[in-house]
Amino acid sequence: MNWFTRVRNSLPFIPKRTTDDTLWIKCPGCTEMIFAREYHENLDVCPRCEHHGRMGADARLDLLLDGGYRILPAPQVREDPLKFRDTKRYTERLKQARAKSTHSDAFTVADGTVEDFRAVIGVQDFGFMGGSMGMAVGSAFVAGAEHALNVRAPYVVVTAAGGARMQEGILSLMQMPKATVMTRRLKAAGLPYIVILADPTTGGVTASYAMLGDIHIAEPGALIGFAGQRVIQDTIREQLPEGFQRAEYLHKHGMVDMVVHRSELKATLATVLDYLTPRAVA
């Protein structure tokens, strides 16, 4: 034990105190330091460079829905069906993710109104194991679509995912056709299916329900794609354009209908619902 360690251990240091007023956040876009309170009050958007940060499920639902919405119960699925283990057991990773979240998995569905327009909204939380799509996510997506069919309401999904959940192997990939079938059922029933693409939306989610909407709305700067840019470049052996796979590039090339600032997202969604929601004939 050196002299510094002996002195440090013998002194009665007071634990460092932190509050919401003294915490800072480093913007991933401009790298400026921002007060956490200022950042969250600005809907997790940098007030300096307009970089759109990632939002949790509850914050996203509060943003889009009017007060008094109801969160639907999460479907029960078999956990760790493959008894998967890498550096940790899959069950341990789930336990750690749930300790940081108020929900049991990465996809949460709520029933409510958007400026008085009835809607069922499903939100994918990137903070829960990268928003990865496993059986729980697939089952929650299907349950949300089933509920929308039952109540005859539009289904709105906010995507944010790194792709399929590797700990569930082929079972995670099976969620892609399952979710795709539900989007076809919504279409057959004449109900709008609207997708809001948040950062990032990649992998199997992009290859299934994320790109099957009637309307696609993206947040500014959102990364949207199937494979990573480096993988694509190595495959085709060509340099990709600047901003490739970003929301603005996809909008310019017709893959996204509109790019909307987060502060205007609820009003824009309400306008879209006003256009697309079936109206009763008097």
Helix content: 25-40%
Q: Could you name the CATH topology of the largest domain?
A: 2-enoyl-CoA Hydratase, Chain A, domain 1
**Tally of domains:** 2
Mean pLDDT: 91
| CATH fourth-tier homologous superfamily of the largest domain | 2-enoyl-CoA Hydratase, Chain A, domain 1
Q: What's the alpha carbon Rg, rounded to whole Å?
A: 21 Å
Annotation, overall tally of beta strands: 9
Q: Which residue ranges are poorly predicted, with pLDDT under 50 across at least 5 consecutive positions?
A: none
Strand content: 15-25%
The coarse overall form would be: globular
Query: H/E series, N to C?
Result: HEEHHEHEEHEHHEHEHHEH
- The strand order across the widest sheet is 3-4-5-6-7-8-9
In whole angstroms, the N-to-C terminal distance is 85 Å
Q: In CATH, what is the class of the largest domain?
A: Alpha Beta
Quick one: biggest sheet? 7 strands, mixed
Name the descriptors:
about 15% strand; globular; single chain; 2 domains; alpha/beta
Summarize the structure.
The protein contains eleven helices and nine strands.
Overview of this structure, please?
The chain is of the alpha/beta class and 282 residues long. The protein has 2 domains: 13-51, no CATH class; 52-276, 2-enoyl-CoA Hydratase, Chain A, domain 1 (Alpha-Beta Complex). It is 35% helix and 16% strand. The chain contains 11 helices and 9 strands. The chain has helices at residues 3-10, 36-41, 57-64, 90-99, 135-151, 169-173, 175-188, 203-206, 229-236, 247-252, 265-276, and strands at 24-26, 33-35, 70-71, 107-114, 117-124, 155-161, 193-201, 215-218, 258-259. The strands form 2 sheets. A 7-stranded mixed sheet has the order 3-4-5-6-7-8-9, with helices on both faces. Strand 7 (193-201), helix 8 (203-206) and strand 8 (215-218) form a beta-alpha-beta unit. The longest helix is centred in the middle third of the chain and has 17 residues, at 135-151. It is globular and about 80 Å long. The termini are far apart. The mean pLDDT is 91.
